[in-house]
Task: inverse folding
């Protein structure tokens, strides 16, 4: 297996164009950095995760009692929304073609209803339950991955389909801002967030030599 992998690498390297080789060599420089990031891991505030998870579970129970059905049951939710309250079906699931009840679809239904519609309160409560459920699930996942040594050790993926850096085990790039306090900077260090606004658009403008956009 090792020999076959080396042969494949040598064959692929020889077939690279000059531009492709530049990108390839740049990506190679990133590999040890990402490996070190995975090995070092992200220190976690385990107490914050436990407190937040407990708080969201309590919120879910309170909101579920107001809703009157189990919001985690899609069948019960469909019956409540589309039979009991006659709400409009704005989307269906890909697999079963049944009415969708995900957060985005509920948000669309919310926009369809007129101000003062008594069904708005139900949609608001359901959306609040889904947000609490999402937070609770994230806290549980991070505790599962991090309780061994108090750190997350995600695997970073350089070549996802999207072309952007991704991560798994867990995905640390999709956590909501209000939960980012779960990360603890070691003594003497700070967490820093950077963002290059409209990076793709700037690249397109430069490549196209579009003076107005530049």
Result:
């Amino acid at each position: 297996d090792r020999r076959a992998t080396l042969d494949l690498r040598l064959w692929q390297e020889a077939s690279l164009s000059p531009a492709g080789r530049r990108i390839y060599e740049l990506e190679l420089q990133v590999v040890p950095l990402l490996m070190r990031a995975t090995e070092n891991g992200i220190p976690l505030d385990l107490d914050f995760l436990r407190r937040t998870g407990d708080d969201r579970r309590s919120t879910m129970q309170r909101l579920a009692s107001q809703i009157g059905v189990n919001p985690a049951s899609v069948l019960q939710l469909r019956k409540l929304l589309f039979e009991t309250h006659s709400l409009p079906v704005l989307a269906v699931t890909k697999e079963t073609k049944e009415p969708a009840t995900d957060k985005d679809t509920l948000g669309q239904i919310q926009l369809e209803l007129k101000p003062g519609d008594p069904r708005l309160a139900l949609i608001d409560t359901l959306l609040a339950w889904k947000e609490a459920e999402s937070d609770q699930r994230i806290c549980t996942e991070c505790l599962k991955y991090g309780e061994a040594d108090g750190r997350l050790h995600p695997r970073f993926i350089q070549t996802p389909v999207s072309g952007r850096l991704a991560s798994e085990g867990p995905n640390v790039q999709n956590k909501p801002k209000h939960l980012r306090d779960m990360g603890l900077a070691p003594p003497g260090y700070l967490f820093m967030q950077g963002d290059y606004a409209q990076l793709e658009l700037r690249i397109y403008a430069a490549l196209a030599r579009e003076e107005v956009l530049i």
